[in-house]
Amino acid sequence: MATVAGPDAVRTLTVLGCDGSFPAAGGAASGYLVQSATTSLLLDAGSGTFANLQRVLAVASLDAVVLTHEHPDHWADIESLAVAGPIYKGEPIPLYCPAGIRDRSYFKHTAAFDWRTITAASGVTVGDLRLRFSRTDHGPETLAVCIATEGREDPDDLFVYSADTGPNWSPDVFGKGIGTFLCEATHLRDLEGTFQHLSGHQAGAMAKENGVRTLICTHRSPTVPADALVEEASAALGREASQAAMGKVFEW
Question: pTM for the complete prediction?
């Protein structure tokens, strides 16, 4: 990764886990490391993601954590981070999340975290990353995340993570022509309307409507073949979409 800040600095997304609802054998649930030249942010922390985080980043170098909602496949591994944080970092890690997650944690009173409640109206700055939020079409309060970096304000330079959502939400709330869209695509088209999640087809259609430059599908159910899902998303998008995979790194 680049080490010099500036408008041309490399920004990366490392997939720590991307299995939907539960981790497959050898897999991990939702979790992503978002990095700029100067900032490292953990975005969701599902089962298995903390072990994978340590493969690519020293815990002491983690600047903050953002959790999108209270379903355990998106936050369960902060329990491990709560134990390791004081050992490796030695100071509270800012942890941004909707109300409710803290009360579900065994470590809700730990000094490992600086708990900070966020809503769809919140604005958060972590280092050179600026975050906005939008409530999605999902059961509990679930927040999509839009990330911009210093000196890169155009929609084409934005990174948007849908978190979990049904079809009654759109990344358009953050503007048209988004650069990189990490969008949940849990199942195939034949199950549309069955769950409050998106199919590959719906994710592709949503990205096409917005004018997204790069679509990365994530949160695929372990029961769904990856090639079938990304093929469905690509057909709806009208060009090739990508499928998130554990350990894969994307630039944005």
Answer: 0.95
